[in-house]
Design goal:
alpha/beta; Rossmann fold; eight-stranded mixed β-sheet; 15 helices; 14 strands; globular
Length: 410
């Protein structure tokens, strides 16, 4: 098969959608299939084009056998409603106009969010005369309503109409969680038209690293009990909770809170950290993907946090699988489906979202009980190996795509 995948982000960008698409696509290429990714020039999260790239109307690239068509978009930082919408819509339009550069296509997959990337799959599949699979990694517009990014009812209604249109016109839908599938079926889609393929971990890349890592040396983390949050610093994550917990822990000189990543909230959080005089918090910008295992290896525990919202009960943050694979206990501040994974795996401590007291208490428990830390860590690695291997999940996904392609040829 020749699979065209529409994704707004792709390596060298290091966020969750870029990683998911790349990890799946390189495995499909190894199975003998051709994959072309239509994406933008790398610029996330600061809206600055990465060195070595230019924001041209189109340019071809290649990585691990994956063909990459990068199209021109309005470039802006990942903050500010109108700039972000301009960025999203410009990608959709560019993808629609430039997709004809790709020849002999068998299947089109588009991923949402961002919302307009998912929607572009409808037009691209029609242009290329191929079946369309819609991947749902998050529920839009529900998630942007939950964080208050959009408050105008007219805009929300319009987005909900587009959402329903996508669900009912896709040949098949791939959902990341069971809760997402329930939401999609409630919007009028037949259950058999929705498959579930969760995120997982690359067990070869994310595995325990013996000895002192290069990150530990560079940032002087040796001798500290490091509790990290690694990932986008966005509106959905309520990272003020981390700073409030750090204030509670301020007198614990051997405990360091490490925050690594970019995003719309990072500058505000950095100013808040400085105003509170939190010397026990180290905030670093977004790092190279290759360093992610080293940051995890330098952590004694990892935080996975989202706002307290009914919507986020449907979410399974991808970072839990990487922390589990690295044998790191998790402090988990998310309700719903992902909490059940942590409890079934017995690999962490679950807390109430946005509760700094419970967060600080969980840090202290793990700090004082190294035997508990080791047990939770080992449990996580075992559980992710059995249930969330990226190799197995990529095979499951590919089998779904094969079935949709076969139906399209009958």
């Amino acid at each position: 098969m020749h699979i065209v995948f529409l994704c707004h982000y792709f390596p060298p960008e290091v966020n969750a959608p870029a990683s998911r698409i790349y990890e799946n696509a390189k495995r499909w290429v190894k199975k003998g299939h051709k994959v072309t990714v239509i994406t933008s020039v790398p610029n996330h999260p600061n809206g600055v084009v990465y060195p070595g790239y230019k924001n041209r109307f189109w340019q071809w690239d290649e990585k691990d056998g994956i063909n990459i068509l990068r199209v021109k978009t309005f470039i802006g930082p990942n903050k500010g409603f109108f700039k972000r919408i301009a960025n999203y819509v410009s990608f959709m339009l560019s993808a629609i106009f430039m997709c004809r550069l790709v020849k002999n296509v068998n299947l089109v997959v588009s991923t949402s969010p961002q919302f307009f990337c998912g929607f572009s799959g409808y037009f691209v599949s029609n242009a290329l005369k191929s079946p369309w699979v819609l991947e749902i990694r998050d529920l839009w517009p529900e998630s942007i309503k939950a964080v208050g990014a959009i408050r105008q009812n007219a805009i929300i209604k319009l987005l909900e109409c587009i959402e329903t249109f996508m669900y009912t016109h896709a040949n098949h839908i791939v959902s990341l969680t069971h809760a997402f599938k329930q939401h999609i079926v409630a919007r009028g889609v037949r259950p058999e038209s929705v498959s579930i393929v969760t995120n997982g971990a690359d067990l070869d890349q994310f595995k325990p690293i013996p000895g002192e890592s290069e990150v530990e040396q560079k940032y002087g983390l040796k001798g500290k009990f490091v509790v990290s949050f690694i990932g986008t610093h966005g509106m959905a994550h309520a990272l003020d909770t981390v700073l409030r917990a750090a204030k509670i822990l301020k007198n614990q000189k051997n405990i360091l809170i490490l925050m690594v990543g970019g995003g719309a909230e990072r500058e505000r959080l950095l100013k808040q950290k400085e105003s509170l005089g939190l010397d026990n918090v180290l905030m670093l910008p977004q790092q190279e993907k290759r360093l992610m295992p080293h940051f995890l290896a330098s952590s004694n525990a990892c935080m996975v946090l989202l706002r307290k919202s009914d919507l986020f009960k449907t979410v399974i943050p991808s970072k839990i699988f990487e922390a589990m694979a690295m044998e790191r206990p998790i402090i988990h501040g998310v309700e719903g489906e992902s909490r059940k994974i942590i409890e079934q795996a017995d690999c962490g401590i679950c807390i109430e979202p946005e509760n700094e007291v419970e967060l600080a208490n969980a840090v202290m428990i793990l700090f004082k009980e190294p035997i508990l830390c080791r047990r939770l860590a080992a449990n996580g690695r075992n559980y992710v190996c059995m249930n969330y291997s990226r190799d197995d999940l990529a095979d499951d996904y590919l089998n779904i795509l094969k079935q949709i392609y076969k139906k399209g040829t009958e």
